[in-house]
Amino acid sequence: MARKTHHKHSSRKGYRRLLDSLAALEGGHRVATGRVTPRMGSGRPVAPISKLRRVDSGLSITINTEGAMVDAYVVTDRPDEVEAAIRARGWTAS
Predict the structure, then answer these.
(1) 51 CB contacts (<8 Å, ≥6 apart)?
(2) How many other C-beta atoms lie within 10 A of the C-beta of residue 25?
């Protein structure tokens, strides 16, 4: 079986399990990481996923980790179902 997660930047990061869980969601075809930027400010993130946006290929998300923000993309043809599953698992603040 082909891998569904492309771990571009996440080899040693704590969010690798979150990416693999996103890829395992029903309706999700693939998850790929994008830009990684340092997170300014103190304190822990409120939720693992701070932003959830729709794009042509599925969903664009922003993942909060210790000291970084990671843009990732969930490739899906059923964004409504994947978004509902993400919210049901409590991965977003809203």
Answers:
(1) 60, 61, 62
(2) 20
Average pLDDT over residues 66-85: 88
Tokens found for residue 42:
């103190």
Model-level pTM?
0.76
Our CA angle for 70, 67, 35, nearest 5°, is 20
Q: Is the pLDDT of residue 86 over 50?
A: yes
Q: E strands within 1-94?
A: 5-6, 28-38, 49-55, 58-65, 68-76
* Model pLDDT, residue 83: 92
Residues 27, 81: contact at Cβ < 8 Å?
A: yes
In whole angstroms, what is the distance from residue 78 CA to residue 63 CA? 20
Question: From CA 80, how far away is CA 46, in angstroms rounded?
Answer: 23
The pLDDT value recorded for residue 1 is: 43
